[in-house]
Amino acid sequence: MSFNSSLNEALWIRQKAIEHTDLFKNSIPLIASENLMSPLTREMVISDFNNRYAEGLPGHRYYQGNKIVDEMETRVEELLRRLFNSKQADVRPISGTNANQALVFAFLHPGETILTPSLDSGAHISSAEFGAVGMRGCTIKNMVFNTEEMKVDVEGTRKAILAEKPKVVLFGFSVFLFPAPIKELKETIDEVGATVWYDGAHVLGLIAGKRFQDPLREGADVISGSTHKTFPGPQHGVIVGNTDDEKWKKVRRGVFPGVISNHHIGAMAGLGVTAAEMIEYGESYASAIIENAKTLGGELYSRGFKVLAEKSGFTESHTLLIDVKSQGGGKQVAEVLEQNFIILNKNMIPGDTNTKAQNPSGIRIGTQEVTRIGMGKSEMSHIADLMDRALKGKDVKEEVFQLKKNFQEIRYCYGKDKGYDFVELYK
To answer: Residue 188, exposed/middle/buried by CB under 10 A (0-12, 13-18, 19+)?
Structure first.
């Protein structure tokens, strides 16, 4: 390949980035695991922080040039502890799954037992046989799950805890519709001496906004999470804890040198900015997310969609799970909606097996990003109508474009209303 043709390849990649940006500028984004960074957070991600390395902890680095990084990282940890009212915070994991890997190394050895939800009841793949827990060589046992209510069955799970005597009990879902019964099961967990781990990747922003549940006050030792879902920051990870010093030392070692070297300093700075913004705006943002999810669930249900957990009110989070077997299955429904610029994902539902992962029976919806750009209850009704007509064979692209063009500004952050305009650091 010649020099000029190599440069053309670079320009081709740039063009794809522009096209991708335009795609989402015009689409209705309903992926439950995505969100938009604030302008001030974006500045951190492209700053010189992003070019540098910082192995270890503040004051104990393996590189020079980290004086300012140390100051920043210490402040970011303080902000996270303040936001989650926690004793400890580690802001170095580079994703939610990376944070999970660190906790697996901290708390589990090969052969030891972990109790966790099953995949078809909404668990994350990192707790599966083929994920981080399974690759650690741990024995995986599953909680009992009430598929009608889409909640953990407390009495059934209590019996499972007593029978299995797990080393770790993990509450965590990729489809996290309702709070986990930590308080209800804490006495039983303590009876077998297990560590309580809460994977809050999806609901971290709702916890920060004091709207979903308060895992640390309810009995969790640690919370892991990704910081770009309901928590609207950069793609990064975090662990917060209210545990004893010895367990926290294991967490610190699990992070470094366990699963990371450098910890993506620009993203960590962006995490700090987002934490500060969530201290200011988190409660109103979380309330609006949940209100929109409940509204959208009701609007879809009224149009004949089989929204799960009807008797429980569909959801108490940002997420909806819908059985679309009668409309052709999750793969077909997600593809038809994508053709109409409504972006969501196919998803397993209770009763699906691992063999259906690429063609499951359901779809998953999240309202955190549409809320972030200012949509409310009337827009949820409009989105439900657009989805319904698209799946009945109507072309609704132009209506999607018309709706979306009125929602292009990021809310619930330090923005123009506070006199701040995004300024590129490098031009």
So the answer is: middle
End-to-end Cα distance, the chain? 29
Q: Are residues 221 and 319 in the same domain?
A: no
Residue of higher predicted confidence among 416 and 245: 245
The pTM for the full model equals 0.94
Q: CATH number for the domain including 266?
A: 3.40.640.10
**3 part of a folded domain:** no
Cβ–Cβ < 8 Å for 406, 379: no
Neighbours of 407 (CB within 10 A): 15
Per-residue pLDDT tens for 129-145? 777 776 788 888 999 99
Q: Is residue 157 part of a domain?
A: yes
Neighbours of 245 (CB within 10 A): 9
Nearest to 380 by CA among 21, 36, 30, 35: 30
Q: What percentage of the chain exceeds 90 in pLDDT?
A: 85
| Residue 409 placed within a domain | no
What are all long-range contacts of 157-164, with beta carbons under 8 Å and residues at least 24 apart? 157/115, 157/181, 157/185, 158/185, 158/188, 160/115, 161/115, 161/185, 161/188, 161/189, 161/191, 161/192, 161/194, 162/188, 162/191, 162/192, 164/113, 164/115
Residue finishing a domain among 225, 253, 278: 278
Domain of residue 383: give its range: 28-40+282-404
β-pairing, 195-199 vs 222-228, is: parallel
